[in-house]
Amino acid sequence: LVIDVLKGVDPSRKCFRLVGGVLVERSVDVVLPGLVSNREKMKEFVASLKTSLENKGKEINQFRETHGIQIKGDEAKDDKEVESSSKGGERQANILANV
Prior knowledge:
Layout: H1 2-7, E1 14-19, E2 22-27, H2 28-67, H3 72-87
């Protein structure tokens, strides 16, 4: 958004940028290339984080399979899937009675 706005502005116009907690005054032609390079670096960083997240997920799943670790929520899902597939078209009715 800022890059798009600064592209339409006179390059000699002054602008302000926060660098390391200090507000500095620069011209648009100095600030704009820095903003563009920061955006590209952020895109690369996000892509590398996504790949490392995928790799870590695969690593965790492999560790779980190797050591036979099951998560309590996963067990319940598996049991429900087995019950629903074994019952087929049966319908279960529950009755509540006060005794």
